[in-house]
Structure formats: structure tokens, C-alpha cells
């Protein structure tokens, strides 16, 4: 979890994307690339993950 007050190193541009390094591996959660803060990040990364899987 990135915490309530993320550091600069935990900002969105430094987060891992939802598409993993291996075909078929995806990530979702508040540690990954997603809009907003805290649980918003988990929600948006999960949504992007589902959309990516559906379109792959
Ligand atoms: C005290 C507290 C208060 C918070 N208040 C807010 C708030 O007011 N608003 C807000 O937006 N956010 C809040 N947050 C943050 C929010 O809870 C998180 O951002 C959000 O839950 C992250 O969702 P997630 O799915 O990434 O991870 P999690 O919700 O942590 O889910 C991860 C799940 O994976 C499971 N898991 C872990 N390891 C394994 C394993 N090896 N095998 C199988 N399962 C595993 C865990 O048991 C857990 O169920 C709060 C967090 C805390 C701790």
C-alpha cells in the first residue's frame, strides 16, 4: 500500500503500469498506475486492467 501521504517516489509517474512484463500478467491495486489517491488508485487500476484484458 502506498499510504495516505505518498512520497514523491510513490507518485503516479513512478508507479508500475497494469501490464506486466510477461504476456498475460496484469497488475491492479493501489501500488500500480491509476488515477486519484488511495482506494481510487486501486479502483482505476483494476478498471484499466479489466479493459486491457478484454481488449487483448
Ligand atoms: C486504516 C486505513 C484507512 C484507510 N482509509 C481510506 C479512506 O478513507 N479512503 C481511501 O480511499 N482509502 C483508504 N485507505 C486505503 C485503501 O484501503 C487502500 O488504498 C485500498 O484498500 C487498496 O486496495 P488494494 O486492492 O490495492 O489492496 P488491499 O485492499 O490491501 O487488498 C489486497 C488483498 O490481497 C490479499 N493478499 C495479500 N497477499 C496475498 C497472497 N499472498 N495471496 C492471496 N491474497 C493475498 C490481502 O489479504 C488483501 O485482501 C485506508 C487504508 C488503511 C490501512
Could you explain how this protein is built, in words?
- The protein has one domain.
- With 56 residues, the protein is mostly helical.
- It starts with 38 loop residues before the first helix and ends with a helix.
- 30% of the residues lie in helices and 0% in strands.
- The mean pLDDT is 88.
- The protein is built from 1 helix and no strands.
- The structure holds flavin-adenine dinucleotide.
Bound compounds: flavin-adenine dinucleotide
Q: Helix proportion of residues, in percent? A: 25-40%
What characteristic shape results from the CA principal axes? globular
Radius of gyration: 11 Å
Describe the sheet with the most strands. none
Strand content: under 5%
SSE sequence, one letter per element: H
Count of alpha/pi helices:
1
Mean pLDDT: 88
| Structure summary, number of beta strands | 0
Q: Structural class, please?
A: mainly alpha
Low-confidence stretches: none
SSE order and pairing:
Elements: H1 39-55
The chain binds flavin-adenine dinucleotide.
Write a brief structural summary.
The chain is an all-alpha fold and 56 residues long. It has one helix at residues 39-55.
Kindly list the characteristics that best describe this protein.
56 residues; mainly alpha; 1 helix; binds flavin-adenine dinucleotide
